[in-house]
Amino acid sequence: MAISSKQQKQFVQAGIMPYFFDERGLKKRAPEQIKQRLLRTFDGNISAASGLLPPVKIFYQNQPHFFPLITADKKHAIQGVWQLRLENDENLLEGKIKRNAIELPRDLPLGYHQLTLTVKNKQYTSRIIVAPTRCYQPAELQEGKKLWGSFIQLYALKSEKNWGVGDFGDLKDFLQNVQGYNADFVGLNPIHALFPANPESASPYSPSSRKWLNIIYIDINALPEFAQSEVAQQWFNGKEVQDKLGKVRSDSWINYTEVMQLKLQGLGLAFDYFQQNATALRRQAFEQFVQEGGESLQVQATFDALHQYLTSRFSDQWGWDFWEKEYQDYHSDAVQQFRRDNADEITFYAWLQFCADQQLAECNEICKANKMTIGMYRDLAVGVTGSGAETWSDKALYCLNASVGAPPDVLGPQGQNWGLSPMNPHVLQQQAYQPFIELVQSNLKNCGALRIDHIMSLLRLWWIPKGDSAVNGAYVRYPVDDLIAILALESQRHQSLIIGEDLGTVPKEIVSKLKNAGILSYKIFYFEFDQQGQSRHLQEYPYQAMTTLSTHDLPTINGYWRGYDFELGQQFGVYPNPKVLAILQKDRINAKAKILARLKENEIEVEKGIDETLSSDVSKTFNHQLQRYVANVSSALFGLQPEDWLDMSEPVNIPGTSTQYANWRRRLTANVNDIFADKDVQALLSAVNSARKSAK
User: Fold this and answer.
1) The pTM is what?
2) Is 199:142 a contact under the CB 8 Å cutoff?
3) What is the pLDDT of residues 275-297, one digit of tens each?
4) In whole angstroms, what is the distance from residue 442 CA to residue 439 CA?
5) Percent above pLDDT 90 for the chain
6) Pick from 298, 302, 303: which is nearest to 319 by CA?
7) Residue 388, SS3?
8) Which residue, 179, 368, 456, 459, is most buried by CB atoms nearer than 10 A?
9) In what residue span(s) does the MalQ N-terminal beta-sandwich domain sit (predicted)?
10) What's the confidence (pLDDT) of residue 414?
11) Measured in Å, how far apart are the chain's first and last C-alpha atoms?
């Protein structure tokens, strides 16, 4: 079917890219039918500007601030005056239109300013953002120092005191322990709000909202209300509860339904005590939190309360798109009536956010007290699920008939459909980037760095028509320079380092943009080879990067070395055919041979039986040897994970699976304190710290 030139222009205007280059450098064209289906998901919303001024304009500090008005008749001279109200400043700057353009002072301060243009008694407004050109980097990076730390899946931590899932109390213990080895940071999985009423929706990368926290991480025993409530303590110390806690603590895999039921019961008892007996100081802190949280907090608390209400009465209430129509929008009359009728329940869920926020802040204070160079780094997921709180309250911002993922590549031959709803880049601009600003601000709270998952999403996202295969998609462009500028502004304001996860098919144009903006790249040791095909020399890694041996999407060192991920992939149908699997296995054997050659070159003797084959032995000793070796990498940051300290095999996630494998449920094989009491782990961490701190 022939495509009209008008529709081709619409594809371009919408930002649907006609082709991309895959990891082999081959040009892949998007089918016209797919582009048409994706165009329909925009609902005609493919333009940002609608007046003389754009809704938002970004300038860089100490550079010319000049832009032309948006007018079809360039020859007609428009006369008018402009006023600029600076952020946090009541004073106004004023001027006149000259040659159909506005020229603002060059020395505007960093921040978000409001421009008002008056032409013939008609007013137009625009947000003016003045940003730095680079993100924040701590002095240690500017001095070329080599830092190190651990990254953890918080839910996977085990202890004698948690309630069957890692919590902020465990995080405090982990921070205190790892700081004893002079670690500079501890990285977290995304701790975004999920679905308390549907706890089995456990993926931290498929959140209900990225602005609020996952309440399952609250350390209930540390809440003053829980400790002081006689009712709560009697319930907690009863045989039934203690038996349940004993079971969920000892489980190797997290039972989210059981854990969440227990925690919500305990939290409910603590909240009852708060309502009746809270100190004036504690109540005031909560009221301030509610005030600062504004409508966004009310949306989240209402969503969680309503979700719980509906789930307790009806089956299959997975998210708002499964609810009765009258409840499918936060702004509806029925939802507002629910808010009036269930004020206490909504306050309860707002209070849970308050408790989570306070405990995360306490973790951050531990980092500061111990003078960790970076402290915690948080992780920002690439999007939100279409059935959660964010999409519920702002449907115009999201294209709900599309989902995002990744095109097919060597590691994911069938592509990936993440089931997340993409933001419409044009509506994002219409809203003057406010949703993105709030998102970044929320995730830079109480941390020293932010890892951005799939940072290529600032440039482009792989859109897939909802319900279709990931193969049937196309890339959609985003305003990358504007988004990086906002990231730089907030990074400097929060004094937080930015790490960009840039794995997979990375377009050349974003590489230089990230580097120039001071955003750290992300390097996986397994994937790094030089032009001769050898395992990349550790001194040839870029300094402006974080290097690791694995991630949540990859096998552990143990699993990688013996090809256990291939066994699991076959078992769960990850590979489309035996040919693809054979290619991947051959590549693995070759990669391992190159790694072993580097170890030999560095006079690292490995145990007998450890070789490049997929039937190779693997031991804790070899595992630790490999981590010690990579610790010498020239990258600014080196990260390692406790799974590899413990020589674990089971992955925490298998991309390309959903319910086939128990993703996001695998726990560590040892309690936090036992990990740090392990002599082998102690020797490893001491050696890593020595390698990093003595590196030139």
Assistant:
1) 0.96
2) no
3) 999 999 999 999 999 999 999 99
4) 5
5) 89
6) 303
7) coil
8) 456
9) 53-132
10) 78
11) 62
Q: Which residues of 111-133 are buried (b: 16+ CB within 10 A; e: fewer)?
A: ebbebbbebeeeebebbbbbbbe
Separation CA 38–CA 30 (nearest Å): 11
Half-sphere exposure of 653 (CA within 13 A, CB side): 17
Judged by DSSP in three states, 415 sits in: coil
**According to the model, what pLDDT value does residue 411 have?**
64
Q: Which two tokens stand for residue 297?
A: 């907090």
State whether the Cα torsion 623-626-632-635 is positive or negative: negative
3-state secondary structure 136-153: CCCHHHHCCCCEEEEEEC
Sign of the C-alpha dihedral computed for residues 389, 290, 450 and 684 taken in this order? negative
Confidence of residue 60 (pLDDT cuts 50, 70, 90): very high
* Residues pairing with 187 in the sheet: 151, 377
CB atoms within 10 A of CB 276: 9
Q: Tell me the β-bridge partners of 460.
A: 477
Instruction: List Cα–Cα distances, 79 to 72, 101, 103, 649, in angstroms.
Output: 15, 10, 14, 70
CATH class belonging to 62-131: mainly beta
Place of tokens 């070159």: 601
Q: What is the mean pLDDT of residues 690-696?
A: 86
- Output the six-digit token pair for 27: 């040009």
Structure confidence by residue, pLDDT tens digits, 476-507? 999 999 999 999 999 999 999 999 998 877 88
Is 696 a residue whose pLDDT tops 80? no
Name the amino acid, one letter, at 535.
S
- What residues does 84 pair with on adjacent strands? 93, 115
Domain edges within the chain: 62-131
Of residues 214, 119, 155, the one with CA closest to residue 662: 155
pLDDT in tens, 546-574: 999 999 999 999 999 999 999 999 999 88
Strand partners, 369: none
Look at the block and give the residue holding tokens 């084959």. 613
The C-alpha angle with vertex 78 and arms to 75 and 79, in degrees rounded to 5, equals 145
